[in-house]
Amino acid sequence: MGKHVRVLAFVAVLALAAAACGGGGGGGGTGPTGPTTTGGAIKPGGTLRAWMDTDVTAAFDPQKEYFQVSFAFYRCCLLRTLLSYNGKGPDQEGDKVFPDLAAEMPTVSDDGLTWTFKLKQGLHYAPPLQDVEITAQDFIRAMMRTAKPEVAAGYSFYYSVIEGFDDFAAGKADTITGMTAVDDYTLQIKLTQPAGDLGYRFAMPATAPIPPNPADPKAPLGVAEGHDDDYGRFLVASGPYMFEGSEDLDFSVPAKDQEPVAGYQPDKLISLVRNPSWVADDQDDLRPAYVDAISVEICPGCEQEVAEEKVANDEIDHIFTNGVSAQTARKFSQDPNLQDQYFVEPGSGNYYLAMNLAVPPFDDIHVRKAVNYAVNKEGWRRLSGGEASGEIAGYYTPPSLLGNLLEGYDPYATPNHEGADSPEGLQLAKQEMAQSKYDTNKDGICDAPECKNVLSIGVVGRVAEAQHQLIAQNLAAIGIELDTKNFDNSTAYGKIFDPKNHIPFSVFAGWLQDYPDAYTFYFFPMYGPSILDQYNTNYSMTGASPEQLKKYGYEVTEVPGLNDKIDECAALTGDARVQCWAEAEKILMEDVVPIVPMIWSNVEQIISSRIVNYTYCLFDNQMAYEQVAIAPELQ
Amino acid sequence: MAKVQTEDAREDAGLEPSLGAGVGVEGRSPWQLFWRRFRRDRVALVGLVLIGLMIAAALSAGLFARYVVHHPDVNEFHFDMLDEYGLPLGPNKEFWFGADPQGRDLFLQVMYGARTSLIVAFFATGLEVVIGVVLGVIAGYFRGKVDTFISRMMDVVLSLPVLLLALGLVAACGLQPQGCLGGLIKPGLLLVSYVIGLFSWPYLARIVRGQVLSLREKEFVEAARALGASNVRIMFREILPNLIAPIVVYSTLLVPANVLFEAGLSYLGIGVPITTPSWGRQLSDASSLFQSAWWTMFFPGLFLLITTLAFNLVGDGLRDALDPRAEAAAYARKGRRRKRKEAMGEGEIVATEPAPTGGVG
Fold first, then answer.
1. Which residue of B has its CA nearest to A461?
2. In chain B, N or C terminus with fewer CB closer than 10 Å?
3. Rounded distance, CA A449 to CA A409, Å?
4. Is the model more confident about A40 or about A467?
5. Cβ proximity of A231 and A224 under 8 Å
6. Distance, C-alpha A354 to centroid of its chain
7. Which residues from B are below 8 Å from A474, CB to CB?
């Protein structure tokens, strides 16, 4: 073929490819019109169809799972706890706990060390144990399993405050001495120190009751005996739903011979059906549970954008996700047929930049404050997807956990949150830097050798790398030259998890609540005694003792912290507790300054037009499956 | 249309002077002959012009940034070019190619990307040529065990999973500021160039080896040996000059392959550093946004296409211009067709211009 013809062929192919692939910027969902997602008629029935691109992390083992999506399944559907949430948002007391299996809120002794729960009577487990009543001993059984080292529970540390918990975990006792079933319907818990948020801790799924095994009543862990690694596949439900096929579970045979429940196929499918015991007992004020069944397709490695398109086309009803693609967000927002199916909700987490207080130049508070002024938070957020990704954070803990007491508080505010990319922001940053010992000529530029080649750890990814670049540019404006390194998630976390690595700066840190109390934001990330040799999440070494600093090889001998304040707040309850956390927040942001708070993250949800009574649950940051219904004519 | 057969064309084709051309024929050097043949290939000239434009664009990117579009920093974020959802906006008066997914000036990103691609491609090609030519000449000249060893080395390198090794090497050496091998291989453009060059030299080495096996039997080599020339002198002063043509042609064709290799590595996220614009990474960043921001993929893709096409066209043209046998064969074919037509009475006897390079249809 002549050369000319080859050239023409090349161009023709290009044109054909462009024509085939071209078309459509945003716009136009074509989902059928149907009942509105709010205010439509509610009629029980139908199957809710969901999708997720990753399975739960521990096969639904309630002691092991430490994953928000798992928490959502437990709370809405599978497991009831002493106290629980109403499945609603921040404006509807979604951050509060209410009696669930407890008949009323617990009584607490004056010294805060004894908590007494009265249980509702006549509540039963799902099949095959529909004849077994839920009693106080079942909660002790759950806590024993949580403490058991072989189970490797996800958050057992929350329960070390219970008398005897750690001794049982260490094998020094046969029971948890601080937990007593006074009678079948009264549970008493004694603590080693006051914990004002114990109610929240007993709303966690690890505390859900584990029934006794009728075939082996003496088994210490009941039906979970022999299932140290896989109880989730033999889970006995107590909520409005159960795994399909639960009635076929046979606990009369040895654990290793039992067949797992059919309604959960790892990496493939979750199928929930109504729990007939829950229907019969009819003692649940928190969960209307309108739908008859929930079917979740698990598609590891699949493109979420494909699923988003299916939601727009009503092929599936919901995706378990915290965010959607920017293109989907724009499409849903701009299409009149889809606008009512797109929601931006307040999340329960944040993102921040972590500065190591024990590594120069961040051992100087003026440098840390200058960095706070310099970072362009609005640009960072724009790269994340704009306003939908979150609210610019003026401080560390999400406002809803502080009772919104710090509304308007932003000690390092710059015009439009643009940091050093605005003249005023740059001026503020320089003024702060000029007070630092690392600005030798006091011109507002960090010029000491410690300001050069500062290692900064980030993660790979188009957005994350661009954000890292932006931060590097902002800090360069005040003389701090970052040596940016981006790694995959696992490697990046591995580097900052080890305090011996002396990582000066990391740009991908974030934190998510375990329950709606500021304690969960302070206990690990900002508390000196929580610093660990491995998997340490106090990246800044906040509150580290001189002994800890020496142990990890730091030359700096002391760093600021607020350990005492955290201890003080942790013992309080009610409004006093929230007020205390607000005060701690100011100490953190003005006297310690270990971080640059970037955003309080939002959660985006999209739903099909079949969903009626859409409700968002603040606790698990997902649509509340037990609150929503399927439009009657589409069931 | 009557065409005039020029004496130059006949000479180019190695044909005898035409009747009546008794006036003396001016001699030309091989390079003049080459250029005369090359410049007649219009498609190759177009390719040359495009290469020139691409090089000019790469060299003048900084000037464009500062004095034309007034965005002196190619990595500057322009957040006003991201909409409320963080999606890039399209071409306008200030941003000729629109914004890239990070809100940067895509026009500048593409211009600087040309610089990256050409630097890596030329450096990698140079490395390939040096290694390939040296080893190919040595293998072909000495034959025997030396040839066997070098040929097996070629086989091994050709058998390596290039992409996987490139991934590992770039990832490993790219993560440490001091690089690898005592700082010899540092993160950046050089690292990518080394990776490309080190895995691609066997292709040229094989071609050179084949040519040398033939040339070493020629009389001029015997003569040089008889005169006491050393092996090194014979290899690189006698034999190598005769290989310039195929080396140049093949090298020209290596460049676009290396441009694509660099783009591929960058597409996979393991090429040049993130602060260095690269067409491959631009295509990768654009892949998830193509439906709503077509420009983010179109312009880098177009420039990549033009660059590789231009080098391929020039390479074809060089091959045809440097190999007179190719043109002679083409001219001879055309001459036979003319005579067939005459024999069948289909046409007059007409003089013809020499056949254009690039083959005949």
1. B269
2. N
3. 34
4. A467
5. yes
6. 19
7. none
> Which helix (H) or strand (E) segment is A384 a member of?
helix A377-384
Q: Is the pLDDT of residue A140 over 60?
A: yes
Judged by CB atoms closer than 8 Å, whether chains meet at A333 and B75 is answered as no
Whether the CB-CB separation of A300 and A52 falls below 8 Å is answered with: no
| CB-based burial label for A98 (10 Å; 0-12, 13-18, 19+) | middle
**Residue pairs spanning A and B at CB distance below 8 A:** 90
Q: What is the mean pLDDT of residues A61-82?
A: 96
Residue A9 phi, psi (nearest 5): -65, -40
User: From A330, which residue of chain B is nearest by alpha-carbon distance?
Assistant: B85
Quick count: other Cβ atoms within 10 Å of Cβ A93? 13
Would you place residue A48 in the very low, low, confident or very high pLDDT band (cuts 50, 70, 90)? very high
* Predicted confidence band of residue B8 (pLDDT cuts 50, 70, 90): low
Q: Do A327 and B358 touch (CB under 8 A)?
A: no
Alpha helices, H only, B143-288:
144-159, 162-174, 189-215, 219-226, 231-233, 244-267, 279-286
What is the DSSP annotation of A120-182?
PSS-BPPTTSTTPBP-HHHHHHHHHHHH-TTT--SSGGGGTTBTTHHHHHTTS-SS-TTEEEE
Average pLDDT, rounded, for chain A: 92
Rounded mean pLDDT, A5-32:
39
| Model confidence at A573: pLDDT above 70 | yes
Specify the pLDDT at position B266: 81
Distance from CA of B335 to the nearest CA of A (A): 19
* Residue showing tokens 């192919």: A13
Q: Across the interface, do B175 and A485 touch by the CB < 8 Å criterion?
A: yes
Q: Please give the sequence-ordered ranges of beta strands (E in DSSP) within B74-123, or none if there are none.
A: none
| Chain A residue numbers touching B101 (CB-CB < 8 A) | 462, 466
CA distance B326 to B297: 39
| pLDDT reading at B163 higher than 80 | no
Q: Which of residues 318-347 of B touch A (CB under 8 A)?
A: none
Please state which CATH number belongs to domain B44-324.
1.10.3720.10
ipTM of the complex: 0.82
Domain boundaries, chain B: 44-324
Report chain A's C-alpha Rg in angstroms: 27
Indicate yes or no: CB of A379 within 8 angstroms of CB of B79.
Answer: yes
Interface test mutation site (partner B, options A375, A381, A382, max chain B beta carbons within 10 A) = A382
Is the pLDDT at B331 greater than 70? The verdict is no
Given a cut of 60, whether residue B33 has pLDDT beyond it is: yes
